[in-house]
């Protein structure tokens, strides 16, 4: 097993990971979204250099599958030529509507940029493990509640709610910090994690309050009782701060042939869309639209086999690529998931998640599920 295949590694563009259908490269854009022509170019590159399958992950990253060592380098050159600015180092993630959501308590992007710069200045990327991450959430219509992180900063009317070690429902609350304190607190926690070694996570800190003792905190908040929206909630029409709308469209189990994404992006261009945002819960968001344009694009997406109905039973199923796409897969997960969605649609009403996992790692749905089917043998 090479270094890219080890569990816990992140298959970045510069370090793709070996899996069952070749190398896998993951891209997370700095700006949060892509110009439609850049997304088209990326998908065309996936057709040239990979197996033509493009994923959008649960965290909103884009994955290109079926690469070879040579074609992975060609893909990286194409990404550079398309002027796609890809994040590297410790992920600092914001919500899919960051900065444009009419209901945000605060724009999270300036704080996220401050944290990224501070991480780079402290050389923390070299001292932290590949899975360590930060979430900076503006508190809008599409919260990042379901995305686990070592450090969470969530905007509220009182300041930034700071917690560590998990998704919103499981993270350990620390307190409330103001704008001036938020970055310092996040870096102090990451520094403490780094002292424990590259296998450490924020949940391993014995007393995180001592770590940031010099920073005055407001009253410590109770554990969050909010529930993350389902994928179906991301597939809606959202009002934006500039008076336009954003449309959410999902990829079945997070995967789609690149040609279908190209066709949808071209239709979006014709409707005046200037940005497409890969979003958590394996969706694509199309901001800056009118209501008529949303209806037109949704019809086009349905004809291309995207999920456009929030009641689609496939949204209640988390399924990894499985066999033969993943080297660890012991089950043809997506075939089984499609069969279950067709035969048992009445039960899949969004009230619970069915997890179909190709192996015991459970990559598609790390959180507990009501029912999990695991491949073995």
Protein model, in words:
With 377 residues, this protein is α+β, with helices and mostly antiparallel strands. The protein is 27% helix and 21% strand. The strands form four sheets. It has a five-stranded antiparallel sheet. Strands 5-6-7-8-9 form a five-stranded mixed sheet, with helices on one face. A four-stranded antiparallel sheet has the order 10-11-14-13. Helix 3 packs parallel to helix 4. The protein is globular and about 55 Å long.
Keywords:
single chain; 377 residues; five-stranded antiparallel sheet; 9 helices; 21% strand; globular; disordered N terminus
User: Spans of 5+ residues with little confidence (pLDDT < 50)?
Assistant: 1-8, 224-231
Strand order of the largest sheet: 1-2-4-3-12
- Main sheet overview: 5 strands, antiparallel
Number of strands: 17
Please provide the ordered H/E string of secondary-structure elements: EEHEEHEHEEEEHHHEEEHEEHEHEE
Distance between the termini: 19 Å
Shape: globular
The amount of helix comes to 25-40%
Q: Average pLDDT value? A: 89
Which radius of gyration do the C-alpha atoms yield? 20 Å
Number of helices: 9
The secondary structure category is alpha+beta
Q: How much of the sequence is in beta strands?
A: 15-25%
List the helices and strands and how they pair.
Elements: E1 17-19, E2 22-27, H1 36-49, E3 53-56, E4 62-67, H2 69-81, E5 92-93, H3 109-121, E6 134-137, E7 149-156, E8 159-166, E9 172-177, H4 179-195, H5 208-211, H6 231-234, E10 237-239, E11 245-250, E12 255-257, H7 258-270, E13 277-279, E14 283-289, H8 291-303, E15 317-319, H9 333-343, E16 354-357, E17 371-374
Parallel strand pairs: 5-6, 6-7, 15-16, 16-17
Antiparallel strand pairs: 1-2, 2-4, 3-4, 3-12, 7-8, 8-9, 10-11, 11-14, 13-14
Helix pairs in contact: 1-2, 1-7, 3-4
């Amino acid at each position: 097993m090479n270094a890219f295949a080890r569990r816990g590694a992140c298959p970045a563009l510069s370090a793709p990971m070996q899996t069952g259908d070749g190398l896998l490269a993951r891209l997370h854009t700095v700006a949060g979204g892509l110009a439609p022509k850049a997304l088209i170019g990326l998908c065309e590159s996936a057709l040239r250099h990979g197996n033509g399958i493009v994923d959008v992950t649960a965290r909103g990253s884009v994955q290109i599958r079926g690469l070879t060592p040579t074609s992975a380098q060609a893909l990286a050159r194409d990404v550079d030529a398309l002027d796609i600015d890809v994040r590297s180092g410790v992920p600092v993630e914001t919500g899919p509507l960051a900065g444009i959501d009419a209901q945000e308590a605060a724009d999270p992007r300036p704080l996220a940029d401050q944290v990224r710069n501070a991480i780079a200045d402290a050389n923390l990327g070299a001292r932290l493990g590949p899975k360590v991450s930060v979430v900076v959430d503006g508190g809008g219509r599409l919260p990042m509640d379901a995305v686990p992180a070592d450090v969470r900063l969530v905007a509220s009317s009182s300041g930034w709610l700071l917690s560590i070690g998990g998704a919103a429902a499981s993270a350990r609350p620390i307190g409330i910090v103001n704008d001036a304190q938020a970055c310092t607190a996040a870096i102090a926690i990451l520094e403490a994690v780094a002292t424990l070694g590259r296998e450490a996570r924020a949940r391993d800190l014995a007393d995180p309050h001592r770590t940031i003792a010099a920073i005055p905190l407001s009253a410590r908040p109770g554990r969050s009782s909010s529930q993350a929206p389902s994928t179906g909630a991301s597939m809606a029409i959202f009002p934006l701060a500039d008076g336009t709308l954003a449309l959410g469209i999902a990829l079945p189990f997070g995967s789609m042939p690149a040609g279908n994404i190209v066709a949808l992006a071209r239709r979006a261009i014709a409707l005046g869309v200037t940005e497409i945002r890969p979003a958590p819960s394996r969706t694509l968001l199309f901001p800056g639209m009118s209501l008529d344009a949303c209806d037109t694009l949704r019809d086009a997406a349905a004809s291309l086999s995207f999920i456009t109905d929030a009641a689609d039973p496939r949204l209640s199923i988390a399924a990894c690529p499985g066999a033969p796409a993943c080297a660890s897969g012991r089950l043809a997960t997506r075939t089984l998931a499609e069969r279950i969605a067709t035969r048992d649609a009445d039960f899949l009403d969004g009230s619970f998640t069915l997890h179909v996992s190709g192996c015991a790692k459970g990559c598609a749905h790390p959180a507990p599920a009501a029912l999990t089917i695991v491949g073995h043998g």
